[in-house]
Design a protein that fits this description.
The chain is mainly alpha-helical. The chain folds into 4 domains: about 30 residues, no CATH class; about 100 residues, Arc Repressor Mutant, subunit A, CATH 1.10.10; about 80 residues, no CATH class; about 50 residues, no CATH class. The chain contains 15 helices and 3 strands. A 3-stranded antiparallel sheet has the order 1-3-2. Helix 4 crosses helix 5 and helix 5 packs across helix 6. About 5% of the residues have low confidence.
């Protein structure tokens, strides 16, 4: 192939032969949330520590519980660094609150060897405060929805200010500064409009609010009016309900010969495993949902012959009063 043809191929790539198209369409690629990635850049996290963090992030996202169990040697091989570099990366990530590692103790299969630690990726508290300021991705519903046509100048002002509102949410300080410039009459009219579900108010002829701020006020009234107009879901009536017998939440999905084993795994996960950090009803609901969706797998750190202590201590009793 000549240099001219190679250059022409680079300018007008062919989808059937261009390796870039094959990489995008056929190969795996990672999703990195922009707010979290930029926060890592702002903190000056070393590149090797970023590699280790994103590796555990992807593994935790695959397992759907944000936890992964990779040995130090596996992490070093996948990140193309030395094991000592991985150890230093763990120290940096722990200091920033990005990961939490739990030591499971000795390996049940080999008591003379330490088991692989479980790593959970976390979002620092400092970043949680800033998440509300980050713009959200537009959904299909928000793209299809259009404002109700209205010929009033206030409605056109609200529509013109709707676009910057979706990209920039005013902070509390900015909102306080805006309302400090509003007159008492404008504040009173906004209060009555918000209580009555009105979508517009009349601003003063010599108002101190800018066009963008007036658009924010009208957009806020429109949002509150839409929330009032949305009907609340009707409560289900239980008067005519007929009892259909007990629900078989596990046996309907799991084969009969595996029911006891899955139930044992659920009990361990709720009492001693990854689900113990939730309240018991919520933990059971999470486990049942995974079973219904066919995503339930045996917990990583569950001992092979684990039995609940109370069930092991309990035995058959005879009634002496009979």
């Amino acid at each position: 192939m000549s240099a001219e043809s190679m250059h022409a191929g680079s300018v007008c790539p062919n989808e059937n032969r261009d390796p870039r198209v094959a990489l995008v369409k056929d190969k795996y690629f990672s999703f990195r949330p922009k707010p979290l990635e930029r926060w890592l850049w702002q903190q000056g996290v070393p590149q090797t520590a970023e590699r280790v963090f994103w590796l555990h992030w992807e593994e935790g996202m695959k397992s759907r519980d944000w936890c992964s169990q990779l040995s130090l040697r596996q992490v070093a091989t996948l990140c193309c660094v030395d094991p000592s570099t991985v150890t230093r990366a763990y120290q940096v990530l722990k200091t920033l609150g990005l990961i939490r590692r739990e030591d499971p103790g000795r390996d049940p299969a080999n008591p003379f060897q330490q088991a692989t630690a479980v790593t959970e990726v976390r979002v620092p508290r400092e970043l949680l405060v800033q998440l509300s300021r980050s713009p959200n991705r537009p959904t299909a519903r928000s793209v299809r929805s259009e404002p109700t046509p209205d010929a009033t100048p206030e409605a056109s002002l609200a529509r013109s200010a709707a676009a910057p509102l979706t990209a920039h949410h005013p902070t509390r300080q900015e909102a306080q500064a805006m309302w400090s410039r509003a007159s008492a009459g404008e504040k009173a009219r906004f209060f009555h409009a918000s209580r009555n579900g009105a979508r517009r108010i009349d601003f003063d002829s010599e108002t101190h609010l800018t066009a963008e701020e007036r658009g924010q006020v009208l957009a806020q009234l429109d949002q509150m009016a839409r929330a009032r107009a949305t009907p609340a879901p009707a409560a289900k009536s239980v008067q005519g309900a007929v009892y259909a017998g007990p629900r078989k939440l596990i046996t309907e999905t799991v084969p009969g010969q595996e029911t006891a084993e899955v139930l044992r795994q659920v009990i361990w996960a709720v009492e001693e495993g990854a689900l113990r950090r939730f309240e018991t009803p919520l933990a059971v609901n999470i486990a049942l949902k995974k079973i219904r969706e066919g995503c339930w797998t045996k917990p990583n750190r569950m001992p092979p012959n684990w039995m609940r202590a109370q069930s092991m201590a309990a035995g058959p009793e005879t009634c002496g009063a009979a």
